[in-house]
Design goal:
- It is built from 7 helices and 4 strands.
- The protein has 248 residues and is an alpha+beta fold.
- It folds into 2 domains: 151 residues, Spore Coat Polysaccharide Biosynthesis Protein SpsA, Chain A (Alpha-Beta Complex), CATH 3.90.550; 72 residues.
Length: 248
């Protein structure tokens, strides 16, 4: 690329240029040995996995941050992999569902698992950095947390946004109905009117309707995205026993 566009774009461009059926993501900082690549690729060649991630062995910076990140991912997404942010080997088909949004390459394993790809892991020794500098800083932590929340939302509600917006919207409308009933009872039974209840009912009902509106717009956007994905999907994409996503 003529300018720095991030690892996600680099992976996409590399996948387009590569001709093999199995791709390997290896950083260029020389912290990993090329001789460990066959052990990562072997489970894919044996058809026992679609994505193989390396588990770092040895001392490295950011160990605590990595531990927190991996723990959150396992808890939120149910992915039983020790190290999600390390070297990886994966089938070419995994790239079809990987977005090129900045830094979302970190969630390749999570997104692949959500699409039904099988996971495996292999230990890989981590050597001292011999080239380049770490891009990690304290400013990356809030960005990583927001990315984590965004990926969780996309995987959980990306295809059903009305579920996310409609449930609280219905709850607000129902609560507004209850407040309206209480206000009517207070007004006509106890002869005590309170205009604040009217404003509260309007607020709750309008907020609920707005959430429903957001949900309907989200449903339309989700439909458009599915159509775009269908158009971008290669016609000869293998499935099932040929190396694509598995059910279960």
């Amino acid at each position: 690329h003529r300018s720095q566009r991030g690892i996600a774009d680099a992976l996409a461009s590399g996948g387009d240029a590569a001709r093999g059926r199995v791709l390997v993501f290896y950083p260029a900082d020389l912290q990993y040995r090329p001789s460990d690549i066959p052990s990562l690729v072997q489970p894919i060649l044996d058809d026992t996995a679609d994505i193989v991630t390396g588990t770092k062995q040895g001392h490295y910076e950011k160990r605590f941050v990595s531990w927190v990140y991996n723990g959150l991912c396992r808890w939120l997404f149910g992915v039983r992999v020790t190290d999600l942010n390390s070297v990886k080997a994966y089938r070419r088909e995994v790239m079809d569902g990987l977005t090129t949004r900045p830094d979302w390459h970190r969630f390749m394993v999570v997104i692949g698992a959500a699409q039904g790809f099988r996971l495996a892991e292999r230990p890989v020794p981590l050597l001292p950095r011999r080239a380049g500098k770490s891009k990690f800083g304290l400013g990356r932590i809030p960005v990583g947390v927001l990315d984590l929340m965004s990926v969780w939302f996309q995987l959980r509600f990306g295809r059903k946004p009305l579920l996310f917006f409609g449930v609280p919207g219905a709850a607000l409308i129902f609560l507004g109905f209850l407040v309206a009933v209480y206000a009517l009872i207070e007004r006509y039974v106890y002869q005590q009117g309170n205009r604040a209840f009217l404003y509260l009912v309007l607020l709750l009902v309008l907020a609920g309707l707005m959430l429903f509106g957001f949900g309907f717009v989200g449903e339309m956007l989700a439909g458009v995205r599915e159509e775009v994905r269908a158009l971008r999907r290669p016609p000869d994409r293998p499935t099932g026993g040929d190396g694509g996503p598995r059910d279960g």
